[in-house]
Fold this protein.
Amino acid sequence: MGRCLTHQGAGRAAAMLALGWVLCAPNPAAWAQAGTEFGFPTVPLKALPEPLRVAYKDTKPEMNDRSRCAAAFDPSGDVEKMTLKCSVYIRMAAEGARRAMTDCEEKGQELRIKAPCRVVQE
């Protein structure tokens, strides 16, 4: 069964924001360089805003080679307009990507994130 993680679950990310860390909007060129995985668009881990990178790295120890995460965020850097959904305990990578994307798209609609969800690649 998949497990989902949002930016609200990342304690360190919230602490960094509370300390006044500035979010950097990703470079649009990073989006253009992204490819596809199982038919879904991808985004490099380094192109994610810091709170999402921290949340991904916090989840990474639980992930296996079939686990996948999907992220969506507005380029404005608004933390309330970011989501990261991960499918951790999964048997097939394609199913993990599909579930992560589905969960991400649902949360993206809820948060009214304009940017599309993308599968995170290291």
Observations:
- Residues 1-34 have pLDDT under 50 and may be disordered.
- The two ends are 23 Å apart (CA to CA).
